[in-house]
Fold Cytochrome c.
Amino acid sequence: MKYTFLVLLLSFLISYAQGDPEKGKEIFAKKCASCHTVGGGKLMGPDLQGVIAKRDIEWLKRFIQRPSALIEEKDPTALALLEEYGAPMPDLDISDEEVEHLIAFLRAAEAGGTGKGGLPSLYIPTLIAALIVAGVLTFLAVSSGKKEVEVKV
Ligand code: HEC
């Protein structure tokens, strides 16, 4: 019983830390697709296919949340993009959680083209994490002398 809370907490942390590509896709469609594609060519902004490999993840998160801050800091990559595209990307009020989902979506798109083909591979990290959690919980239960553990997810 006392592990149920732990499982819920861990699954929350895992899903938060990893972001959900499906949610990312929805956010992308709502807030980004007017200016960007992933693998469909340039619109007002760059095609974001390959951006995960090209840029540092922390930089990407900051750029997506507040492009204006990077321009103000005279970040060389942001300035080069601004020069290339002629117009700055607006600050879109993206929350910390939304940015994780967007990164997950971009990463998934990278792994499987536009996200149609490579779906199973998206879930491998989550699956591995879940297995580790289950393993740790079993170990805890066994070492504390219990025979079973209640895993409610
Ligand atoms: C109004 C149009 C517009 C919208 C909406 C928009 N962007 Fe952009 N984006 C741009 C432009 C223009 C650039 C390139 C110029 C610049 O850096 O400002 C850019 C650049 C980027 C880059 C940097 C690409 C690289 O090569 O490093 C990323 C990443 C990005 N956008 C992600 C997003 C995401 C994610 C969203 C949705 C939350 C979004 N953008 C919404 C116009 C937009």
Observations:
- The pocket of heme C is lined by residues 31-32, 34-36, 44-46, 48, 51, 55, 60, 63-64, 67, 78, 81-82, 85, 87-90, 92, 94, 102 (CB under 6 Å).
- Residues 2-143 form a domain with the Cytochrome Bc1 Complex; Chain D, domain 2 fold (CATH 1.10.760.10).
- The chain has one domain: 2-143.
